[in-house]
C-alpha cells in the first residue's frame, strides 16, 4: 500500500531522522492499526499491536526519500510533518506465489516477501506442487524431489502453440529452506499458508511414485494445462497424503493448510464425482488432529466442503457469494480481478499475453462483492507458467500489486492512487524492482519466443458461468 493521508493535517515541512522516535502499544487501536505523529520535535508511533507498529513503520519508510531505501544509504532524512491515523479494511491481504510451475530460489522468495510486506500485505499463499513440479521434500519419500521436482522441458507460451524450450527445469525446498521462509515472513508479520494440491494436479508426484496413481507411468508434465492423472484412493495413497500434510504442519505454523482441490478430472475414477468430497473430508479430519483447517479452492464447495474449511474463491465473482451462503469463511480472488499472470494491455510487446485484460485500474477496482463477516479479505494470485524468473514476476506483479494492496487496505480512489504512484515508483526503483512502466512495455519486455492467447472478458464470463454451474443449482 502506498501511504496516503488519512485524517492528516500537515503542520510543517520536514523532520530530520535524528530526532526522537518513540514507539508504543495502544490497545485502544485496532490490532493492525496505528497512529503516526510527525512533528519538528520527533516521531511518535502508536500501534494496536506489534503488527500495527510494523505497518506504521512501513508508512514512515515510504514517507522518506526513495534514496533512504537503498542499501548503504546514509541520512539524515527529511520527512513531512503531520498525523496519519490508519488501519486495514480486511484481515486477509494476501498474495499467492506459484513456485511449482517455475521454481524460485529461496533468496528470491525472501525478496518477494519483503516487497509484499513493504506494501502491508500479510499472507503469502505458497503454491508448492503441481503437475509440472514438486517443490518440497517429504521424509520417507525421496523420489518426490529426485524425480518429481524436475521436468525435461518447459512449454513456451500458451499451450495452443505447442512450443517447448528443450531445457530441464527444477528445484525444491528443504525443510530448513521452508523454515527460513516462514521465519523471515513472520518477522514481517506475514503468514505463510502452504499448499500441496490434491487429489488432482498430482502428475509430478505420480511420476515419482506410480503406485499413487491409476495406472499412469510417465514423466513430470512438461506442458501447461490440467493433467487427467489423479491420485487413487487406496489406503496407502491416503496415508501418503496424510504424511505430506503432517510434514507441512511440522514446518508451517499457519492455522490453515492448503490442499487445493481445484480442476480435478474424474475420468480415472470412472466419472464418480463423490470421490473428491470424501477425500477432502478425510484430509480435513486429519488436519483437525493437528489443530489445523483446510484451505481449498472453490471447487471443494461442490458436494459439500468440510464445515470449517476456508474457501479461496477464484472462478469469477460468484463463488464468493456461494461460499458465504454455505456458511464458509472465504478469501476472494476472482481471476478477472486478481490474476496477475493476465495481460496488462493490448500492446503487442506485452510478454506472453494470456487471459483477459487486467489493467492497473481493473485491479484497483477489486472488491469481494459480498458484505459479510465471513469474507476474510482478498488475494492476488501470481501463476508462473510464463514467469521463468524473479525479474519476470516483478514485471507482472508491479505496480498492479501496489494497486491490489491498497484495495484490500482501503478505501481510497483510483485518481488519488495515481497521484501517489509516480513517486512510489521511485521507491520501487530504489528497491530494484523490475516493474512494468506506466507508459507500457519496453522492447526488451516482449517474448516473441513464447506467444500467448489473449481472451475477451465476455467470453471468460460465459466460461465462468459454465464452470460454476455446480454451485448455482
From TrEMBL:
Class in the EC hierarchy, top level: hydrolase
Segments for region (Disordered): 439-458
Recorded hits in Pfam families, A to Z, give: Glyco_hydro_20, Glyco_hydro_20b
**Signal peptide (UniProt feature, chain positions):** none
Describe the reaction catalysed, as an equation.
Hydrolysis of terminal non-reducing N-acetyl-D-hexosamine residues in N-acetyl-beta-D-hexosaminides
> What's the EC number here?
3.2.1.52
- Kindly give the PANTHER family that the UniProt entry links to this protein: BETA-HEXOSAMINIDASE (PTHR22600), BETA-N-ACETYLHEXOSAMINIDASE (PTHR22600:SF57)
Q: Name one GO biological process term.
A: glycosaminoglycan metabolic process
**Hydrolase recorded as keyword:** yes
Q: What is this protein called?
A: beta-N-acetylhexosaminidase
Q: Which residues form the active site?
A: 263 (proton donor)
> Which stretches make up the Glycoside hydrolase family 20 catalytic domain?
90-410
**All residue ranges annotated as the Beta-hexosaminidase bacterial type N-terminal domain in the record:** 23-86
For molecular function, the Gene Ontology terms on record are:
beta-N-acetylhexosaminidase activity
Q: Which SUPFAM superfamilies match?
A: (Trans)glycosidases, beta-N-acetylhexosaminidase-like domain
Cellular component aspect of the GO annotation: membrane
InterPro entries of this UniProt entry? Beta_hexosaminidase_sua/sub (IPR025705), GH (IPR017853), Glyco_hydro_20_cat (IPR015883), Hex-like_dom2 (IPR029018), HEX_bac_N (IPR015882)
**Entry's Gene3D superfamilies?**
Chitobiase/beta-hexosaminidase domain 2-like, Glycosidases
| Family indicated by similarity | Belongs to the glycosyl hydrolase 20 family.
Q: Does the keyword Transferase apply?
A: no
Q: Which UniProt keywords apply?
A: Glycosidase, Hydrolase
Amino acid at each position: 500500500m502506498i501511504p496516503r493521508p488519512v485524517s492528516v493535517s500537515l503542520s510543517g515541512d520536514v523532520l530530520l531522522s535524528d530526532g526522537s522516535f518513540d514507539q508504543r502499544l495502544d490497545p485502544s487501536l485496532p490490532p493492525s492499526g496505528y497512529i503516526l505523529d510527525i512533528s519538528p520535535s520527533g516521531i511518535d508511533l502508536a500501534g494496536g499491536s506489534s503488527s500495527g507498529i510494523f505497518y506504521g513503520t512501513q508508512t514512515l519508510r515510504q514517507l522518506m526519500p526513495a534514496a533512504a531505501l537503498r542499501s548503504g544509504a546514509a541520512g539524515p532524512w527529511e520527512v513531512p510533518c503531520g498525523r496519519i491515523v490508519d488501519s486495514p479494511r480486511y484481515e486477509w491481504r494476501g498474495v499467492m506465489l506459484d513456485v511449482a510451475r517455475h521454481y524460485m530460489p529461496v533468496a528470491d522468495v525472501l525478496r518477494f516477501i519483503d516487497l509484499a510486506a513493504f506494501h502491508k500485505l500479510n499472507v503469502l499463499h505458497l503454491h508448492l506442487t503441481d503437475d509440472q513440479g514438486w517443490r518440497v521434500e517429504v521424509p520417507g519419500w525421496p523420489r518426490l524431489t529426485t524425480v518429481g521436482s524436475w521436468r525435461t522441458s518447459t512449454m513456451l507460451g500458451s499451450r495452443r502453440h505447442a512450443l517447448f524450450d528443450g531445457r530441464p527445469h527444477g528445484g525444491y525446498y528443504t525443510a530448513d529452506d521452508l523454515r527460513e521462509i516462514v521465519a523471515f515472513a513472520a518477522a514481517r508479520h506475514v503468514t505463510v499458508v502452504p499448499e500441496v494440491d490434491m487429489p488432482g494436479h498430482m502428475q509430478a508426484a505420480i511420476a515419482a511414485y506410480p503406485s499413487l496413481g491409476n495406472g499412469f507411468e510417465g514423466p513430470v508434465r512438461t506442458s501447461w494445462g490440467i493433467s487427467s492423472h489423479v491420485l487413487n484412493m487406496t489406503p496407502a495413497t491416503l496415508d501418503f497424503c496424510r504424511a505430506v500434510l503432517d510434514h507441512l504442519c511440522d514446518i508451517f505454523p499457519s492455522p490453515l493448510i492448503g490442499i487445493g482441490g481445484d480442476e480435478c478430472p474424474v475420468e480415472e475414477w470412472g466419472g464418480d464425482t463423490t470421490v473428491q468430497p470424501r477425500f477432502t473430508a478425510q484430509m480435513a479430519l486429519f488436519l483437525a488432529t493437528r489443530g489445523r483447517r483446510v484451505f481449498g479452492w472453490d471447487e471443494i464447495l461442490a458436494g459439500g466442503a468440510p464445515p470449517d474449511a476456508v474457501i479461496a474463491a477464484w472462478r469469477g465473482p460468484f463463488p464468493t457469494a456461494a461460499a458465504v451462503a454455505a456458511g464458509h469463511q472465504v478469501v476472494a480472488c476472482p481471476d478477472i480481478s486478481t490474476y496477475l499472470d493476465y495481460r496488462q494491455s493490448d500492446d503487442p510487446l506485452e510478454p506472453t499475453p494470456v487471459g483477459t485484460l487486467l489493467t492497473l485500474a481493473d485491479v484497483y477496482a477489486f472488491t469481494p462483492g459480498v458484505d459479510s463477516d465471513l469474507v476474510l479479505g482478498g488475494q492476488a494470485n501470481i501463476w508462473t507458467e510464463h514467469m521463468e524468473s524473479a525479474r519476470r514476476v516483478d514485471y507482472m506483479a508491479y505496480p498492479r500489486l501496489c494497486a491490489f494492496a491498497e484495495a484490500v487496505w482501503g478505501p481510497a480512489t483510483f485518481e488519488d492512487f495515481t497521484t501517489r504512484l509516480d513517486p512510489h515508483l521511485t521507491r520501487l526503483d530504489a528497491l530494484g524492482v523490475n516493474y512494468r512502466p506506466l507508459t507500457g512495455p519496453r522492447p526488451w519486455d516482449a517474448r516473441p519466443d513464447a506467444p500467448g492467447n489473449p481472451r475477451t472478458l465476455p467470453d471468460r464470463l460465459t466460461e465462468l458461468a459454465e464452470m460454476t454451474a455446480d454451485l448455482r443449482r
